[in-house]
Design goal:
4 strands, 4% strand
Length: 407
């Protein structure tokens, strides 16, 4: 009789979910909404299977508490916004993807599943190359071979080209590629170094030209520099302390409204102006709704009816406000729960520093989601369980004491 391991079941189902979320089936139509709902439903189903699994690996009690409180907050927001309306929305059910953490943690602790990250990287890279190909064919040859991938429409244009959204794995994979390139350099493996570096450049190209998101591109550069410095530094503790202080100052400074206004005038770009106006408008709406509970799950995009240039109605999105948007959406109570993962990661970093090692990929991702994007927006919500898993297994991967061959 063939004995099927729980980790094997988890692994192949999660591969399938990753495959769907990367948009491989979005050729003729955009199935992102249905896939998000499916992802949340499958996460709940796998969690139920996990509960009946014998001999589970140990999970930090604080992570368990965070996930339980997270799910309670989401259920509260669903009830608050109306069960039918909330569950029918793409956004609400996808939040339960956080439950993938439990099977992912089992996979990471299973020695026979060491190829999980390699397979995940392969899926992500193939998806990225395919998206670039589709984007190029449409913008330069004017042939739309995969209309489903242009999910925000063909009028979402910057620099004269139709843009394409990022995938949930892009930042995760980019920072891992930079780490692998540096490790290959340290091991004098030039062939692998140029391979990983070349793939990293592909992701930079996507961020700058295809996704056309300046902040994401800049945070990729900053994160890559951090990974290189920390992996080559002889005094890790001193380097990290200086970098953390600098990052905190930059984060506070960058999110100040007058800085956004100044950047808008310098760049002469309407996107920054819209983001600055959205910050004020959503802020007023948040104060008039509920400071404790926020605007709710169904508040991501609101049309304030403001006309620009006499033609277009301006639409403001909470996701454009990044971490501040999380406060407006979930209020003080939800936000207090959600930022715990950042605090948890910081404690892991400090503990690692006492033992003179650091997970540079985690550091880069932490900075990315504190400044460049929101971990809880619909684009990145599937990365949340991966980030929690990496934090829980902080010393197993992507650190100075990890073995390069594990990837």
């Amino acid at each position: 009789m063939i004995k099927i391991k729980y980790t094997s079941i988890y692994k192949y189902i999660i591969y399938m979910i990753f495959f769907l979320n990367l948009g491989f089936l979005n050729i003729k139509s955009d199935y992102a909404g249905g896939i998000a709902k499916l992802s949340g439903t499958v996460a709940i189903a796998l969690f139920i299977v996990y509960l009946f699994q014998p001999k589970k690996v140990r999970v930090d009690k604080w992570i368990v508490a965070y996930i339980v409180l997270f799910c309670i907050e989401i259920i509260f927001q669903i009830l608050r916004g109306g069960i039918v309306e909330s569950l029918s929305s793409t956004y609400a059910r996808a939040y339960f993807s956080i439950l993938y953490f439990f099977p992912l943690n089992e996979i990471c602790k299973d020695r026979k599943s060491h190829n999980f990250f390699k397979a995940t990287l392969t899926l992500g890279v193939v998806a990225e190359l395919f998206r670039i190909f589709v984007w190029y064919v449409y913008n330069f040859l004017h042939i739309n071979i995969a209309p489903g991938l242009f999910r925000l429409g063909l009028d979402w244009v910057r620099n004269g080209h139709v843009r394409m959204q990022t995938t949930f794995l892009d930042s995760f994979i980019f920072f891992i590629l930079i780490y692998l390139a540096v490790e290959a350099w340290n091991n004098i493996n030039m062939k692998k170094m140029f391979l990983y570096l070349g793939l990293g450049i592909v992701y930079l190209f996507y961020a700058y030209f295809v996704y056309a998101a300046r902040t994401v591109f800049l945070m990729y550069i900053v994160g890559a520099v951090l990974i290189i410095i920390l992996n080559k530094s002889k005094d890790i503790k001193k380097s990290v302390i200086n970098i953390i202080v600098l990052c905190i100052i930059l984060s506070i400074f960058y999110n100040m409204s007058f800085v956004q206004v100044m950047l808008s005038s310098m760049l002469n770009d309407g996107g920054t102006t819209i983001r600055t106006n959205g910050l004020a408008l959503f802020g007023d709406l948040y104060k008039n709704t509920s400071i404790l509970n926020g605007l709710g799950l169904n508040s991501d995009i609101i049309n304030f009816g403001i006309v620009m240039n006499g033609i277009h109605i301006t639409t403001y999105s909470l996701s454009d406000l990044r971490i501040i948007g999380d406060l407006y959406r979930f209020g003080i109570i939800g936000f207090s729960i959600f930022i715990y993962i950042y605090i948890y990661i910081c404690t892991k970093i400090l503990v690692g520093l006492k033992k003179s090692y650091i997970n540079t990929v985690i550091v880069a991702l932490l900075l990315f989601f504190m400044i460049g994007a929101s971990l809880y927006e619909r684009i990145y919500i599937m990365q949340l369980p991966l980030l929690i898993t990496m934090a829980e297994n902080y010393d197993l991967y992507f650190t100075s004491k990890s073995r390069f061959e594990r990837i």
